[in-house]
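Checklist before submission:
- one chain only
- standard amino acids only
- sequence pasted in full

Submission:
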Amino acid sequence: MRQLKISKQITNRESQSLDKYLQEIGKVDLLTPDEEVTLAQRIRDGDQKALEKLTKANLRFVVSVAKQYQNQGLSLGDLINEG
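Returned file contents:
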């Protein structure tokens, strides 16, 4: 069985994808505490768009937590994906 070689191009592509993702989530407006409460109430009532908005607004938090676990065996992209 041949060994898998990981080329620099794959690493660059992953880095570019991560950079694009970070730029995209940076465009999402942060929520005020009142907005979070309102969205939570709408989610409880079954509002799918409210769930999407709350989830997107918290993606930066996921990234900040993932950065705390960097250099422990998983790439930043994998950590973000798990979050």
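Reviewer check: The chain has a mean pLDDT of 85.
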